[in-house]
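Researcher: Structure prediction, please.
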Amino acid sequence: MRLLLAALAAASSLLPVVHAAPREPPAGSAERKQLADDLRTPMQEQIGKPILFRFKHLRLEGDWAYAVWIPLQPNGRPFDWAGTRWAEPFPPEDACTLLRREGGTWRPVHAVIGPTDATCECAPYFVELMHDAGEPARAAARSVPVALFPNPTCGPVAVPASRPARR
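Model: Predicted structure follows.
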């Protein structure tokens, strides 16, 4: 019996991993709150001010998450970019972040603040930007589930695994 169980376990390790379809955690759920809390600290450090998020797009698949978000002040008002590097000439209206869950914590892999619409909406374009950002974003770009993005196939951009980063 033990031999049979060991054989089944070994055989099952050869099967491909099947991922569930991307999903959006419900508003007010503990999962959504944890993701927002885990994202807040690194974004506050990068921006230099306290921040809240209103998600325009949030999808999770396995240990990956992709968020397009509008920054807000802690009082819920539009974010005040004064005193940040994004204040001039046109303060950003939104941002997008790819996250990966590691040890139960969501960690940003790559974030773009003040993007163009194509940057946040198009999987190929965002993945190319990740590739150009260097390691570890480049390594992550090869395994990102593109179904997380609002438009997974909106462009002809392909990112070969061996292409060097642009300088």
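Model: The helical segments are 2-12, 30-47, 117-121, 123-132, 137-141.
Researcher: Thanks, that helps.
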